[in-house]
Amino acid sequence: MEIGIVAQRGNARANALAGDVRAALRERDVEVLVDVETGPELDVDGVPVDEMADCPMVVSVGGDGTFLYVARQVGSTPILGVNLGEVGFLNAVSPAEATERVLAEVERIRETGVPRYREVSRLEATGDGWSVPPAMNEVVVQGPQRGRGHGLEVEVLVDDAPYAVTRADGVLVATPTGSTAYNLSESGPLVHPEVAGLVVNGMAPVEPMRPLVVPLEAEVTVRGDGADQVVVTSDGSERRWIDAPATVSVGLADEAARIAGPRSDFFRALEKLE
Fold first, then answer.
1. What pTM does this model have?
2. Tens-place pLDDT, residues 204-222
3. Diameter of the chain by CA atoms?
4. What's the CATH number of domain 123-252, 2.60.40.10, 2.60.200.30, 2.40.40.10, 3.40.50.300?
C-alpha cells in the first residue's frame, strides 16, 4: 500500500507534521509518497502530486488551498485534510489528531480496500472546443479586469430559461462547498453542505441580479460580451482566456471529489469567517 502526503508549500509546520505522519506510516510498513516540494524538507525524493492518483488515499496538510490543489491533481482519489490548528471546511483533522486519524483510515483500507469518505460535487465549465479543470468551490466567468469601466455584458440562463441580463464584473457559480469561499466575499448566501444546490451570483452587477440557488443538476449558461476576452476561472487558479463574445456552460462534472476521514463541523468552521 502507498499513501500520498502533500504539505502546504513553504510552511515549516506543515512539513514537520507531514514528517511525523510519514514516520508513523513507515513504522507500520506503509510506503509513503511525498510531493516534490515537501520531499527535500524531509530528506527524501518527492514525486509529482498527480502520480499519487493511484494511491488509496492522499493526506493534505495545510489550508483549504492546499486541499483544492491536491484535488485538482488526483481526481477522485480520497483526500484526508489535516489543518494547522484552525478548523477548515475541507480540513477536518487537527494537528494533534493527525497521526491517529491517518492510521485509522489505513487500517480501514487494509480491511475494506478504501478509507471512509464522502463525495462532494464539482463543477465543469465548457465552451466551443474547450474546458477548464473541474472546480470544488466555484467557476467564475468575468472580464479581463474588474472595476468601473471594465467587466462584461452578461446574459445568464438556468436550464435555458433567462435569469438576468446586466453589466457586471462577472458571474460566479458555486457549489455548497464553495459557498463559504469567493461566493461569500461577493455577498452570496451560505449553503449547508447537505443542501443539493448551486449558487448563481453576480459580481458587482449594474442592474439587479439577486444571488440564486438552483438545483444541483441545473446547467447555468453565461454569455459574455463587451470586452476583448472572457476569462473563465476554476477554483481561483486554473484560467482560460476566450475571445469575446463567448458562451460558457457550467454544470456538474462527471467525477466527484472524495473527502476522506471525519466530517468537519460546519458551524464551528463558520467561526473562522467572523
1. 0.91
2. 999 989 999 999 999 999 9
3. 61
4. 2.60.200.30
